[in-house]
Q: What sequence folds into this?
């Protein structure tokens, strides 16, 4: 599975223009199967999508449906887009604690190699909120089984895993600077995988339409199903006890 995780800042680029077509062109250029997006809606009620559904479909994506009562794509701005040949089921909407409204969306996505559980999350700006949010997510991640991953904007600037605990057997992978897109120096956007998944490639995309599309650069990862020992070996961080 080729996966992209990206905070698209409501489709507002470095030029301060809201350009959803530019975001979708960038996704096309990256060639991902699954896109986990943060800040994918306007945030304030009625939470209109930052990427118009018709334009999303025109570019060959299907948005995982989450809010039948609002026009929003995703949950608290977290959206999952799928390419043809990929399907989603067992969608869960997760509200996270904290000073400001935050959340996550989880789904089982299925492609050529079978099902993988994915969680798209956007953690809070304050450290104590992030700690509480990860404490809430940890048992939910453990319940997804070994073929699962978490990706999103963690807002965590520290290089190590302190404060972002994972279930046993899970691993954080090498953090790469994604913010600010004009001069990346903070690794705010991160990826974690369960015991039966390995990340064979992880990079930050910054070419073509990507460079000026948001204030974050996207993480692009190649993820494969493997034995648990290989999955653990792909992380630079020790696991939390």
A:
């Amino acid at each position: 599975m080729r996966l992209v995780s990206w905070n698209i800042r409501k489709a507002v680029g470095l030029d301060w223009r809201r350009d959803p077509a530019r975001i979708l062109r960038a996704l096309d250029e990256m060639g991902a199967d699954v896109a986990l997006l943060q800040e994918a809606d306007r945030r304030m009620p009625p939470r209109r999508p930052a990427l118009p559904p018709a334009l999303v479909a025109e570019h060959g994506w299907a948005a995982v449906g989450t809010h039948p009562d609002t026009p929003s794509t995703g949950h608290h701005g977290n959206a999952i887009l799928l390419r043809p040949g990929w399907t989603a089921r067992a969608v869960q909407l997760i509200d996270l604690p904290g000073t400001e409204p935050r959340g996550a969306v989880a789904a089982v996505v299925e492609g050529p190699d079978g099902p993988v559980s994915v969680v798209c999350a956007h953690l809070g700006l304050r450290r104590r909120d992030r700690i509480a949010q990860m404490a809430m997510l940890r048992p939910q991640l453990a319940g997804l089984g070994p073929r699962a991953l978490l990706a999103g904007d963690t807002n965590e600037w520290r290089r190590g895993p302190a404060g972002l605990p994972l279930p046993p057997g899970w691993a954080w992978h090498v953090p790469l600077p994604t913010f600010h897109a004009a001069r990346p120096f903070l690794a705010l956007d991160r990826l974690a995988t369960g015991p039966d998944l390995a990340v064979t490639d992880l990079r930050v995309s910054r070419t073509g339409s990507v460079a000026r599309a948001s204030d974050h650069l996207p993480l692009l990862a190649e993820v494969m199903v493997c034995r648990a020992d290989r999955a653990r070996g792909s992380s630079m961080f020790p696991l939390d006890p």
About this structure: DSSP finds four helices and twelve strands in the chain. Helices lie at 20-30, 53-58, 127-142, 228-233. The mean pLDDT is 90. The two ends are 29 Å apart (CA to CA).
